[in-house]
Specification:
Elements (H helix, E strand, L loop, with lengths): L1 E7 L5 H12 L10 E8 L4 E9 L2 E9 L2 H34 L1
Parallel strand pairs: 1-2
Antiparallel strand pairs: 2-3, 3-4
């Protein structure tokens, strides 16, 4: 998995990058192919924003999170992204079962 972390108006450190990588590695259970992830962390006056975009199999899936704490914003974005990926995988598996049913 190739992960790039970009910070805007926010001091990024090794601990924050490791936290993002740890969360994104859990996405491997939904995706099996080589994955590219772009994470943008933005600090504003009273809120922190995180944008996560994962590219896999020619598809791009995005999740955005907002909170007062940057780690909570990352968690929100990852949660939204995980929900989308779970839905995509379930849809694919359902289609696969329907096609197998039609073949027999």
């Amino acid at each position: 998995m190739k992960i790039s972390v970009t910070s805007r108006h926010l001091k990024s450190n090794k601990g924050l990058r490791d936290y993002v990588e740890e969360k994104l590695l859990k996405m491997g259970k939904y995706l099996s192919e080589p994955i590219e992830a772009n994470v943008v962390l933005t600090g504003e006056k009273f809120r922190q924003l995180s944008e996560v975009a994962i590219t896999h199999s020619g598809l791009t899936t995005r999740g955005e999170g907002e909170a007062a704490d940057i780690r909570s914003a990352i968690d929100n974005a990852i949660e939204k992204l995980e929900k989308q990926l779970r839905r995509q995988k379930d849809k694919f598996n359902h289609q696969k079962k329907v096609m197998e049913k039609w073949k027999s």
